[in-house]
Amino acid sequence: MRWGRNMPGSGNSVRLTVAQAIVQYLMNQFIVIDGVETRICGGGFGIFGHGNVPCLGEALYPVRGELPLYRGQNEQSMGFAAAAYAKYHLRRRFMFCTASAGPGTANLLTAAALAHADRLPMLLLCGDTFVTRLPDPVLQQLEHFGNPALGLNDAFRAVTRHWDRITHPAQILQSMPAALATMLDPADCGPAFLGLPQDVQGWTWDYPQAFFARRVHRIRRQAPDQAEIAEAAALLRRAERPVIVAGGGVQYSGAVTELTAFAETHGIPVVETIAGRANLLATHPLNIGPVGVTGSDSANAIAGAADVVLAVGTRLQDFTTGSWTVFAPDARLIGLNVGRQDAAKHLSLPVVGDAKLGIVAIGAALAGHRAPLAWAAQAQAERRSWDDYVDLNVAPDNRPASYAQAIGVVNALCHPRDRIVAAAGGLPAEVTANWRTLGIGTVDVEFGFSCMGYEIAGGWGARIAQSQVEPDRDTIVLVGDGSYLLMNSDIYSSVLTGKKLIVLVLDNGGFAVINKLQNNLGLESFNCLIADCPTVPAPFAVDFEAHARAMGALSETVATPADLGAAFLRAKAADRTSVIAMKVDAYEGWTTQGHAWWEVGTPQTSDTSSVRNAHAEVEAGRTRQRQGT
């Protein structure tokens, strides 16, 4: 016992502060991963202030070697790093984030929303105002005169799966296990928030020692209902053109092997969501490609022709479904998902349960059945055509440098177990469409919340996790200039902590993908590219090389994909974070094929004919949109 040596409490209890009790509880929660008992909480990210340093800081100091605390540069980026850490560990481990009361905690709101959208575990330990209210109003307090209990921390109710404010030390006995249970629940996984008032953090209580006993947890595997399995199998037996949509839940369930065997045994083509990228290797004959708005012609063609769609571990967001135009209006959907809401979307036949158990059970019910061979052959022909297009799209030639070319260079030179991180802007679409998966589970494209700024921070969190498991591999971050300028300080964090990253900054002069959307909708370029900002009298280019070097990274600027390849190999050989900057064209070089229709709001009336025409085109695409709940 690290605390309470001089404050033994009574009987089988130990007297601890609230902060000490939280830390001691986290220290004793374990999970088995690959046969090894591992602490569930891998440590934390923290920026101290008056709302968390006196009490929580005091509690964390004695265990700093076992529960490492990484000091970030921005609370939002700390949350992104924690999310990427949890994603790397397939939600079996998490990090906590601690911030002081006021703006420090407010900075975590976006990161909590990302973790909520992506269903990722993260524990938020945030300072709060005094429960006694004796010193009110305090520094950084938001006052609501008609509701004095309402504060900034209440904003987290909308972006967390578990929310609590600790107003008495005894609450920890209930709130900590409840928070942990939420973070380990496959169906309800997400961020957990504890508001820690500054006075309560330091209050003591005689806690039962049994509360701090070492406990080994497991992730629940919910077996699906046999009637639902039988109905799904009967539907698949009748199918002439079945397809599997493989989502991120396949990896979280550890069901990649089972899904692959199921597809092979029954001859069913597989398409991947953005979160499900890297469920199958690019070379697998039944991997027909990524599906949806940022997908491939091959996957979208097969999804559109399918009569039965088995959606496994996906929440079927609009970029997967093409705003519900990718699948034929009369196609039957089967939703295999541990979350009942996800399983039942759009009138799907729900199979509520763990992906691994569900796939095995459906496979057993389908024993001896195989989809028509001609269907798989058709899907494979579509994939070959798509591969031919990607070959041309990523090839370095005399075109202006593009995202796709940069992706092709990295893809050709990286190790199969290197981890790729991207988010927001144009890169998620380009990575999803053009990346050839070399290793299972090696692609992190954050597109659930499509959050600018995740890239470098997420890369840092992923590298912290990766260095514990695959220290000889690299974490490679692909980021546009817009996201880089939004949040880049974790280049400094990675250098400080010795967690090497390779960061490719692809500079197209602003928010080029939104400029492309703007133009595609008949609008003039306005306020997206730096050159088109009316409030910028004299645009100039940022020296990303010098900026990154100022934060301690190795850095260089390259002009061509060939130069990028040589620089990438130097970065691979380096012993610390390397940043490579390359200009890419804002107008040319975009991946032009593979896109599905996407519903975006457009003006129903305008003085500009191009805007009216674009609105008519968007509305015309609605003819294939499925109606459902």
* Helix-strand makeup class: alpha/beta
Unreliable stretches, pLDDT < 50, 5 or more residues? Answer: none
CATH homology group of the largest domain: Thiamin diphosphate (ThDP)-binding fold, Pyr/PP domains
CATH architecture of the largest domain: 3-Layer(aba) Sandwich
Spatial sequence of strands, sheet with the most strands: 5-4-6-7-9-8
For the biggest sheet, the summary is: 6 strands, parallel
Oligomer: single chain
CATH topology of the largest domain, by name, is Rossmann fold
Strand proportion: 15-25%
Which CATH class of the largest domain applies here? Alpha Beta
Principal-axes geometry comes out as globular
Number of folding domains?
3
**How helical, in percent, are the residues?**
25-40%
Number of helices: 23
- What Rg is obtained from the alpha carbons, in whole angstroms? 25 Å
Mean pLDDT: 96
Number of strands: 23
Defining key terms:
six-stranded parallel beta sheet, single chain, 629 residues, Rossmann fold, 23 strands, alpha/beta
Walk me through this protein's architecture.
The chain folds into three domains: about 15-215, 3-Layer(aba) Sandwich (Rossmann fold), CATH 3.40.50.970; about 225-385, Rossmann fold (3-Layer(aba) Sandwich); about 395-585, Rossmann fold. Helix content is about 35%, strand content about 20%. The protein is an alpha/beta fold and about 625 residues long. The strands form five sheets. A six-stranded parallel β-sheet has the order 5-4-6-7-9-8, with helices on both faces. Strands 14-13-12-15-16-17 form a six-stranded parallel β-sheet. About 55% of the residues are buried.
